[in-house]
Amino acid sequence: VLITLAVMGFLSWFLYAFNIFTLGFSLIPFTALLLIFAWALGLFITGVVFRFGTDAQVLAFGASFILQPIVAVFYPLSVLPSWIHPIALAFPLTHIFEGMRAVLATGEVPLERIAWAAGLNVFYVLFGAWFFAKMFRHVKTKGLLAKLE
């Protein structure tokens, strides 16, 4: 993660004159919250792959692309249609990216965004771990684990 952050930070500065470190120390909780959600999503997708086999691996590669338009990665939540706001706000990613935008715009860390993202992450990690364990038990009971490629 640190190597990727360093490389991407350098490239964003070199190619676009954008300094990722203008977020200051607020970058740390936002990055940690993104990492935790990635773990939760990874647990869930691994459970799906266990249950449905290697054909479901497309989810592992496509999940981030499916979520990006919904969770305001590239643009603010305010430009999304109003009917999708409740869906977007159900993901910690929306709170994280909106929080980062707020830091860039105002210089202040929106603690309520961090709190919402952390709370939602707890839910998603618990759900991902439960789903993974359930699917693992299922494939183990059926004897399907050895058949995974």
Distinctive features:
6 helices; mainly alpha; 149 residues
What does this structure look like?
With 149 residues, the chain is mostly helical. The protein has one domain (21-147). Helices cover 69% and strands 0% of the residues. Helix 2 runs parallel beside helix 6 (111-142).
Number of helices: 6
Helix residue percentage: 55-70%
The ordered H/E elements are: HHHHHH
From the N-terminal CA to the C-terminal CA, the straight-line distance is: 28 Å
Shape: globular
Q: Note poorly predicted spans.
A: none
Give Rg in angstroms.
18 Å
Oligomer: single chain
Q: How many domains would you count in the coordinates?
A: 1
Main beta-sheet annotation: none
Mean pLDDT: 90
Portion in beta strands: under 5%
Would you spell out the secondary-structure blueprint of this structure?
Layout lengths: L1 H15 L10 H26 L5 H10 L17 H5 L2 H15 L4 H32 L7
Helix pairs in contact: 2-5, 2-6, 5-6
Short description:
By secondary structure, this protein is mainly α. It has 6 helices and no strands.
